[in-house]
Amino acid sequence: MEDWRGANRSLTQEFDYWIEDVEGEIPTDLNGTLFRNGPGLLDIFGRPVHHPFDGDGMVCAISFSNGRAHFRNRFVRTEGYGAEQAAGRMLYRGVFGTEKPGGWLANAFDLRKKNVANTNIIYWGGKLLALWEASHPYRLEPQTLETLGIETLDGVLGKDSPFAAHPMIDPGDESREPCLVTFAIKPGPLTTITVYEIDLTGKVVQKHDHQVPGFAFIHDFAITPNYCLFFQNPVSFNPLPYVLGFRGAAECIKFQEQNPTKIWVIPRDRSHPAQCIPADPCFVFHHANAFEQDDEIVVDSICYETFPGVDHNLNYQEIDFDSRPPAQLWRFRINFQTQTSQRHLIDKRACEFPFVHPALVGKHHRWIFLAAAHQPEGDAPQQAIIKINPESGEQQFWSAAPKGFVGEPVFVPKPGATNEDDGWVFTLVYNAAHHRTDVVILDSKNLEKGPIANLHLKHHIPYGLHGSFTSQVEGSD
């Protein structure tokens, strides 16, 4: 646990350098940029955040060209970040329980949202966007990571408009152009789900709203060529402790184990109605992928048996992994004819952050890459990368234990590859022995042979959330 805690410290510096300390060799045919987002500040001028998800977003860019790599990181200069840096103190409450100084009285009825822009980073339509699902995106300059300001998608979004942190890139096919599909959630007694489709130029070409009964906490979704799938987790929300300043908004969410999970199947063709199909009660943060098969939709998802809630009285550094429900990979089959769903466990190892080949989003896939626990059972910090075939159960496993702690795996296919798993897997690994972060490149066809390149950074990076790779941005000034 002491090793794991080492990365839970702010990184206040912003760097810009070529990575010279490399074990192995960076592939010479690897060209592009790995972007990654996550909380960079875990305290505001010495006052700790209650949970890392309240930390200000810091984007890292690792650019590859001609067998070399360059590192750059920048904080997203959001309105809240700028105000606190100017004031020299904490000014905002956090969604996950961070309180301003002064106790509940100083926090009561202060319902302002601080957009921390810390969850995901995506390059689309020539724009680099830092995302946080409760508010608008921030646009960054791809080469320098300079914050350019609020992104409105040509006026479609307003300031503080919610915009999902998990957009999906539909790769298209012979009859459809690729597009970005994303959504927004406005929760309440009646929740509105807004679906957006954005073309290659960055223009919103489709937008439609759907209302679902009850409060909905939906972090991610899945798509197929014809449908969007949203899992409405069985939770309730009591806003009173939040309004009165005693709790963060996320701390007011409670799991309702007596209720089913509702799977909303929303056609991408707005002329058709949405369907609601019940599933056994569970909580889903992330989906790996979905595809259509006969009269069914198959969805591979990371499930918790209950909501892994935020305890206001518990310091996240002291988390008891043994008492938490592990996140595990499950396969759902949603049947349109019977209006039912079934699920089965693919693997019992605790895992998160699923990633599939980008060309297979919404299509049948054979392999899923995940960050996982080193131990085969129970919950634990993520120290390994696994590759699983959800149909056969075949898998490969690479571990950075005992001193390494991994982040999300990002799969990048090799140029001209014809096999689904022919490429590289990138992950950021916190090395507790040296208090630094390494950029690890694995051969995705054979994880077990270990890194083909291990790039040692000059510093640590706090544990992050999500990232993406683009071949359209590379190099350094």
UniProtKB/TrEMBL annotation:
Recorded GO MF terms: carotenoid dioxygenase activity; metal ion binding
Cofactor: Fe(2+)
Keywords: Dioxygenase, Iron, Metal-binding, Oxidoreductase
Cofactor binding summary note: Binds 1 Fe(2+) ion per subunit.
Alphabetical list of Pfam families matching this protein: RPE65
Binding site for Fe cation: 166, 219, 286, 466
Family according to the record: Belongs to the carotenoid oxygenase family.
Name of the protein this chain belongs to: Lignostilbene alpha-beta-dioxygenase
Annotated source species: Chlorogloeopsis fritschii PCC 6912
